[in-house]
What does this fold into?
Amino acid sequence: QVQLVESGGGLVQAGGSLRLSCAASGPTFDIAAMGWFRQAPGKERELAASIGWRGSTIDYVDSVKGRFTISRDNAKNAVYLQMNSLKPEDTAVYYCAAKTLATMVYDSWGQGTQVTVSS
It folds into this structure.
C-alpha cells in the first residue's frame, strides 16, 4: 500500500498563505490520482482538490477555486497544495490521499495536518 506523509500545516491569519506537502512512498506506480481532503470540526470530510498522477486533470471544490493550487512532482513522488487568501472557514485537518489503479478509490491516507486560520 502507498504510504503518505503530510507536512506544512500551521496557524495563519486570514488572508495569509500556507503550502502543504505530501510525500508518497511504496508502490507509487499504482497511483492514479492524488487528493487533498479536509475535515472541519463537526463537518464531513470533503475533497478540496485533486490531480491526476499522469495526466493534467485537476479539480477543486468551488469554495477554494481561485485561491488554492494543487501540483505534483512525479520525480519526487510528491503533491503540494498552495493555499492563498486563506479564510477562517478553511480551518480543518487536511489529509493527503491516493487513489490507486487497483481500486480506483482513495484508499491510502496520510496522518493529517492541522490548518488553523484566525480572523
About this structure: The first strand starts at residue 3 and ends at 7. The mean pLDDT is 96. The radius of gyration is 13 Å. The chain has no helices and eleven strands.
